[in-house]
Amino acid sequence: MAEEKPSTVVTCTAPVNIAVVKYWGKRDEELILPINSSLSVTLHQDQLKTTTTAAISRDFKEDRLWLNGKEDDIGHPRLQSCLREIRRLARKRRGGNGDSGSGDHPPLSLAYKVHIASENNFPTAAGLASSAAGYACLVYTLAKLYGVEGELSEVARQGSGSACRSMFGGFVQWIVGESADGKDSVALQVAPETHWPELRVLILVVSAEKKPVGSTAGMQTSVKTSLLLKHRAEAVVPERMEQMIQHIQERDFEAFAELTMKDSNQFHATCMDTFPPIFYLNDVSKQVIALVHRFNAHYGKAKVAYTFDAGPNAVLFALEDTVDDLVEVVKRSFPPENNGGQFLKGLPVHKASLSDELLTAVVRDPVPGAIRYLLLTKPGPGPMMVEDASSHLLGADGLPQSSP
Amino acid sequence: MAEEKPSTVVTCTAPVNIAVVKYWGKRDEELILPINSSLSVTLHQDQLKTTTTAAISRDFKEDRLWLNGKEDDIGHPRLQSCLREIRRLARKRRGGNGDSGSGDHPPLSLAYKVHIASENNFPTAAGLASSAAGYACLVYTLAKLYGVEGELSEVARQGSGSACRSMFGGFVQWIVGESADGKDSVALQVAPETHWPELRVLILVVSAEKKPVGSTAGMQTSVKTSLLLKHRAEAVVPERMEQMIQHIQERDFEAFAELTMKDSNQFHATCMDTFPPIFYLNDVSKQVIALVHRFNAHYGKAKVAYTFDAGPNAVLFALEDTVDDLVEVVKRSFPPENNGGQFLKGLPVHKASLSDELLTAVVRDPVPGAIRYLLLTKPGPGPMMVEDASSHLLGADGLPQSSP
């Protein structure tokens, strides 16, 4: 096994993912071990990604972190877990002599301090689960920096549970695992992003007034109080994982769509069964759900699926040939308010002319301004290293570059 | 066993009930057999009741029905089930000779036609489960008319499942039963209304725009599609029934309140787990839930409980000494809009002066007009016969009296 020469500065990008079999609840808070397996679709980085630069130098006085250009606390326990774990793997890889600065790598002591800068190409406030992309990117970048290879999803998992699924492109399962140390609670790719080229993902960013209950606290309360969550984890999810993998392998959109919707609903049902109950869906979310069911009922089959994480934003799945119609229906149901911003972002959409029949059946009581914007994307690849030096977020001085 | 002389005209009243362990789902649609036991509190007829008059006469040409003064279809299958069942029991009681008009009852042939008039002392549209009171009253009145005694909850159940619980006052369980013919799926009184004199019930009638999915159709879809409902019925409710009975017997308000809220939440969780999902709670319902949790958190214990049936109206439980404060908090959170109607109906409430501490902790973002009115009531007795002839809803001609 040849040792690579670790770089002194590395920049990588990592994707967001959206679960279609939901993760909700930890059996171990420290190691972030889940109570059930989950499965997600990795979204394309052309639309949503985190970029992270990490650098080490003998000149750095302390470990430092910048998020979206602002210095932040690097002492966060979960971030420290990831950093510690990557350094441990690097030490192990170098046969335990990494700290002595011996042999091939005199300037790259593991004792040197690290500077990390990270930013998203989408607003953090949009509620698009930025922590998964953030921790996946952090772990991937540090691994490249320290020359660590192999199973990294287990490390990312310790930053943010769902981050382990952002370590791969396409369709990814996170295996619940059995062992107490979490070594078998890892992410595996079910199929690459090229497997289902027609699949599209439309994100509806809802204008929400309030910040909902955070997922870490929410999960804890659910695990403690919801009898239905326990049943879901033990008796429902194992079978759903098998079914979902099969639907993806067979590219069976209708079956994929129906199970995706059912699993989103069941996750929100366990939130409501939590005490005190947690509500992530607001009236606009419910209007989107009703719209999708009317759309599908009109065609007599599931042509669109919705899924919601711990917030009111909707993520819709549809095949390429349905997207133009779907976007038009959404626009008519939630007419954009003229606030100067672009309403439709991401992949291009063609103007659709809808039949009166479809409009009558599907569009009801339009709610202007209820949706801030739409983002069209598709399944995409996992984390990657950026070779172009001009992309580094840290300059030669180890401090954030001013944005280009 | 002396036979009573059946009257030719009888008027009775029956109460509404509100479930604290919820019934949702039938195992037999025809006989109305539930998938789990349930438990309810019978509300006082001084505030909410149905009145029914039934008369038989050789002069009547056909069976006829009037609801709230308007003639309605007596051919409804469930109403016919009740009528047929009571006539069958009457025939059995008379040793099979009822139809021949023999012996003691020459004028009261079971072949004579019946006229039935029924009305509520509350608006049907208020979503206050009028069918339970309605069918309980129908069955009780017909039984008095035909001189039938004994177990009648099984007959009322065949009109509307929860009607069987309105056949008793106080605290009532409906046993799920095991037999295929439903003979053991009956209501039993857990404790009479005098058992817990301090208990109060505050109904918040929410201004809803839309008629939600009806409970008959909703239940059918839930039974077909919700895995969580199946688990609830099999594994959760049996234990909750035992717990709830114990809390009531011990008059343990905190435990009663917490279990009541949890069970309401779980029922709505199973509705959300239904496919397509069913949402009965709207944003106002959720605001009421949040308000109750803040109220309880302020006192460090459950002083108020909420429960919601298949609609957005909230039913709150509290002890007498909490009611004045609770009403004031609700009024400040949902300031009445001046629409000419009375905002607080039912039992009297005293003006409360709330501490600033309580107000700051509990009242947030008031929503004027979100609640149409409040109705304060308490547990009450079961169905009863009205002796006063002036209360009959049918005149000597067998037709509805004009309202007094």
Automatic annotation (TrEMBL), chains A, B:
GO biological process: cholesterol biosynthetic process; isopentenyl diphosphate biosynthetic process, mevalonate pathway
Domain Mvd1 C-terminal: 201-385
Pfam families xrefs: MDD_C (PF18376), MVD-like_N (PF22700)
Enzyme class, first EC level, given as a word: lyase
Biochemical pathway: Steroid biosynthesis; cholesterol biosynthesis
Entry EC no(s): 4.1.1.33
Domain of life: Eukaryota
Record function comment: Catalyzes the ATP dependent decarboxylation of (R)-5-diphosphomevalonate to form isopentenyl diphosphate (IPP). Functions in the mevalonate (MVA) pathway leading to isopentenyl diphosphate (IPP), a key precursor for the biosynthesis of isoprenoids and sterol synthesis.
Species annotation: Eublepharis macularius (Leopard gecko)
Gene Ontology terms, MF aspect: ATP binding; diphosphomevalonate decarboxylase activity
Transmembrane segments: none
Catalytic activity: (R)-5-diphosphomevalonate + ATP = isopentenyl diphosphate + ADP + phosphate + CO2
Protein name in UniProt: Diphosphomevalonate decarboxylase
Entry GO CC: cytosol
InterPro entries, A to Z: GHMP_kinase_C_sf, Mev_decarb, Mev_diP_decarb, MVD-like_N, Mvd1_C, Ribosomal_Su5_D2-typ_SF, Ribsml_uS5_D2-typ_fold_subgr
Signal peptide boundaries: none
